[in-house]
Amino acid sequence: MSSYSVTEPSARQKWFAGSLVVLYAIITLLPLIWIIGTGFKSPSDAIAYPPKTFFQPTLEGYVNLFTTRTRVTEEQLKQMGEPTTWYDRLVRKDGLIIAGPSRFSERFYNSVIIGFGSTVLCIVLGTAAAYAFSRFKVPLKDDLLFFILSTRMMPPIAVAIPIFLMFRSLGLNDTHAGMILLYTAVNLSLSVWLLKGFIDEIPIEYEEAALIDGYTRFQAFYKVVLPQAATGIASTAIFCLIFAWNEYAFAVLLTSGNAQTAPPFIPTIIGVGGQDWPAVAAGATLFLVPVMVFTILLRKHLLRGITFGAVRK
Amino acid sequence: MLHSSIDRAAQATPPPVAQRIKGLSDRAIAWIFVAPSIVLLLAINIFPLIWTIRLSFTNFRVNRPNEPVQFVGLRNYLNILTDEDIWLTMQATAHFLIWTIVLQVLIGFSLAYLINKKFRGNDLWTTIIVLPMMLSPAVVGNFWTFLYQPQIGLFNYAVGFLTGADPSSFSMIGDTALAPWSIIIVDTWMWTPFVMLICLAGLRSIPSSIYEAAECDRASSWRQFWTITVPMVLPFLMLAILFRGIENFKMFDLVVQLTGGGPGSITELTSINLKREAFEKWRTGYASAYAVILFVTVFGLASIYVKALNKVKQR
Amino acid sequence: MKSILLSSTLIVGAYVTIAGAAGTQASAAELTLCWAAWDPANALVELSKDFEAKSGNTMKFEFVPWPNFADRMLNELNSGGKLCDLMIGDSQWIGGAAENGQYIKLNDFFDKEGIKMSDFIPATVVGYAEWPKNTPNYWALPAFGDVVGWTYRKDWFSRPELQAEFKQKYGRDLGVPKTFAELKDIAEFFQGRKIDGKTVYGAAIYTERGSEGITMGAMDVLYSFGFEYGNPKKAYELDGFVNSADAIKGLEFYKALYDCCTPPGHSDAYMSEDIDAYKSGQVALQMNFAFTWPGIHVDANVGGDKSGYFANPAGPTGIQFAQLGGQGISVVAASDKQQEALDYIKWFAQPEIQKKWWSLGGYSALRSVVEDPGFATSQPYAQTFLDSMAIVKDFWAEPSYASLLQASQKRFHDYVVAKQGTAKDALDGLAEDWKDIFEDEGKY
User: Fold this and answer.
1) Each residue of B175-214: pLDDT tens digit?
2) Alpha-carbon distance B187 to nearest alpha carbon in chain C (angstroms)
3) N or C: chain B end with fewer CB closer than 10 Å?
4) A138·B34 Cβ contact <8 A
């Protein structure tokens, strides 16, 4: 047998592998960094040729993201007197005044409400179902589990036609409740599969001991299983949230003025004239940050989450 | 892998304990726990599916409430299956599907292989690489139109910088030959980490004792790679392909924001085409038939594939 | 982690509560007006403050950017949504909205309030208000006149060295083109030229695929080359009109213009992309709707004397048409606040409000405003607007307009941008597609 362990690569191999991976990581990060950077460019820097790597940072993009602006004549501008705030000053430079807030904060708020609402509902329903599938003899269990999984295979646009009709007759179109129910249904498969895996891993002896001590099933579930499954529930919740957060197809078809979330909204941010890239980038950045944070928090459970629990490691 | 724990769970709750507990019977609790989920799925997935199948035999249009709905038999299905344009969108989808899977498998596996060399900081870099796939595809697709702009876009500029070509001499989204690749590149950028993570799990599941035994038999590292690494990772890889295949068959948000199906109809994937029929032309009956055909296709392909996957696993 | 989630919800929740409390103080009706997100919409917000003050109602606005406008709003109408009380919908929606009862009919209201359609520019009444066309059935009040025209870089056109070079090359002065052939010469002349150290291009035209862009652009050329939507004597007879030899030449011309003279990456451009190209000094000529002109006139880079405006040039035989844009304002049938919505229209139709509308950058369709002797000279683009409005032609306004438009979008983009087939294939195919659609409707 050779002197080195085959499972432990040599230092040179490690160095070589490491530098290739780091190179790939840097390339893959570039578009992301470009999005974040563009958010701090002025509109003219954003469309400069050649593209600017170094630039004078400005918050114009963020101001444009949160406000609507209107053009005024120079006389009107003079009549209005000195701008009172830094953001007023920033837009007046271009002969504009702030007309009011933009819809971005509403859309972001909708994303939060629908995202969190559907996540909570999905976890409540999913934990219950997962517990039952994990611990009891449910008739047709395998079929039901496969049925739950298969609901995720349908193209959203195909499902959207009857849902559009159904929501229209129930008055659920463009409502928070409708979107929460819909996202819950879509996420339920993920939640049941993941949570069943987590609950399967909790030794059944704990509950048996509790039952012998005189707990009811509900008490055993509530006081013994739930605390044990907390980590699993938390990471499942984040996966459900990320899906609902990023979803586009249903949102664009089923929501408009009232319950529209951020993903259909961000691409439609325009300035005076054309697409306002710094504002789009600012919106994208604010929208991406929570997901990036979650990704880092979740890194241990990432694989399990994205494969519906099929791969555990 | 998917069903590994069902058998164990089935043995749960030995009868003596169950008989002694107070309150509802286990069977009742099981139903109370499962029923809400099943009801929700029936209401939002199955009922609409049945409705779609019913609509698919009619000429119903959502935007014509005053017109009588007629039963048209199989006409919608025949029209779709004989429509050349729809076959073109199927081809565009297949091209997209095949190339994204090939690229993602190659790059994803290579990355996993390299990361498995366990160099210092590999955890950190893995997390960084994974970031793109957690983002909203619509937002990302929209921003890539900016990155792809000739002259001012980062992508063209970078390609120009590396190859010496004039950045304004080509347009990824506008050129018929390049547009299919523009969507493949972005999808590969976003989803390679997914394949990588699954491959990494596969690589890490191989016990080192197998390699040690091979080393004793003086098997070359090339031979070890093909006789140990690849077969052991294959079930994982096939699982990754299944997930990517289903996802990209459904692909809508990224591409609709990136190319909108253009130029012409070069990147018009089936989902985008279906959306035009259902929500722009409002041919509801026709689009329902289209949706049913897509269901059948995706279920058919997926179940054939799952059978193959199970065979590979059993070997 | 849980506490992070919780506290962020609380923060956002608190923010929204504050914002919500500030926004809903008025007790009178709150009307929502839906329109596209563009400069005129901002002007309308400004204008509507007068209505809010006089009526005590509050106005809410839902503006959607052009590429998504039709999608979102037709979805809204078809889903019976109550988001919009007032809709400034695109001219081509009128057939569908009328036949499916999505707008309310305004004839009785007009009679009662003494609003006369004869007070409005005839083309806008036909285009924005009537269904069926040329019958006195009104579903909207003409709100915003719009038409495709051209903007050009007057400052570049007046450079002596360029004038001399152009004259030598083409044997005529560098000036506003009278025909499309002349327009293409000018575009070719500027294409790839270095001006002030920057490479510039010929023309920004419409090539957008997703909504209606390339159709609105190509039709401009096709009309003037002799394209007809059908036999003027026999409705829905398309063959030989849609795909006539003249129409084919028109489409070939549009492709040639796209191939020779557009900036790089101009494969999916509509109003905003064209504005971007023009304002950033990339192009000498820009095709765009008239609504863009007030914004260009005050632009820091290309505004004032640097830009001029001209109506769509004539085709080879001297026929001259321009694609109609613009919208009428309608009351949505699903709204619960129809009376207040009608009050808004009544207020909006007053001559003094219409005058103010023009001064804020809104193209009034009221004759007393545009026929005022001072109108033509009130802005440098006012005369061009009047000239253009005199030669308008519009796309189908049939209930099946969306399908008709999808067909032309696909056929035109396939040929012009994706370089597939010939112009004859494209127009033969289009005539076939349209025929199928009308057959489906039982109209053919």
Assistant:
1) 999 999 999 999 999 999 999 999 999 998 899 889 889 8
2) 21
3) C
4) yes
